[in-house]
Every structure is written in C-alpha cells, then in structure tokens.
C-alpha cells in the first residue's frame, strides 16, 4: 500500500469516527434536540441571558419547516462544493495542458523524419 493510500485511509477512518462517536457515546442525550445547529444554540443562549432582546433584522425568507430549511442548506452546500470542484478541476486541467504543450514543444518532430529515413533505406536496399 502506497503512502498516499495509507494517509487517505487514515483520514477516512478519522472522518468516520467523528461522525459515529457522538452517536455511539450518547452525547447530547440530555438535550431536547441533541444535534441542533450553532445558530439555534446561540438563539437559546441569548434568550436565556436577555429575554427582552430584539434582533436587528428578520430573515428574508422563513421556510415553513425545519426539514425544508435543512434541504435548502444541503442544496447550498452541494452547489458550493460543485463550484469549488469545477474550479480546482479547471486549474488542474490547465496545468496538465500546459505541461503537455511544453513537453510537445521540447521533443523534436522525429516521427515524420524517422519514417521517411527508414523508407529511403528500404528502397535503396531493394
């Protein structure tokens, strides 16, 4: 197994452990909603500290349910990941194209000259 494969396997195991361990250890069992987002936890903390707090602004669109809100967030994350993947793929493709062009410019055009020379020697030998 190559060094990169070992590193990738280790990283995959760490990500899997980060996803499974909180569920397996029962973290958040004492809460009503154990795995709420940071925004909801911050809102709860603010209302406990200062119950008369008024937000500075309201959201432009309030989804009718938490499920729709989660779906919209997932779509936003997927679009962002797609844009980043496209950008990095484009950069890699350009670099590979430049490397191929540089390699083609460095090698002499011996393909056509070599076959012509071989043809001449065969013709003169016959």
Structure report:
By secondary structure, the chain is mostly helical. The chain has four helices and no strands. The mean pLDDT is 83.
Helix content: over 70%
What are the secondary-structure elements, in order, as H or E?
Answer: HHHH
Structural class: mainly alpha
The number of helical segments is 4
Identify the notable features of this structure and list them briefly.
126 residues; mainly alpha; 4 helices
Topology:
Blueprint: H1 3-24, H2 38-49, H3 66-106, H4 110-125
Quick gist of this model?
With 126 residues, this protein is mainly alpha-helical.
């Amino acid at each position: 197994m190559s060094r990169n494969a070992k590193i990738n396997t280790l990283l995959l195991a760490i990500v899997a452990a980060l996803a499974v361990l909180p569920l397996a250890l029962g973290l958040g069992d004492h809460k009503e909603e154990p795995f709420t987002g940071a925004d909801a936890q911050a809102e709860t903390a603010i209302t406990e500290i200062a119950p008369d707090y008024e937000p500075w602004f309201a959201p432009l669109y309030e989804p009718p349910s938490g499920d729709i809100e989660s779906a919209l967030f997932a779509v936003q994350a997927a679009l962002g990941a797609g844009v980043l993947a496209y950008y990095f793929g484009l950069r890699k493709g350009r670099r590979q194209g430049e490397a191929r062009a540089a390699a083609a410019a460095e090698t002499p055009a011996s393909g056509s000259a070599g076959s012509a020379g071989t043809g001449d020697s065969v013709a003169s030998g016959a």
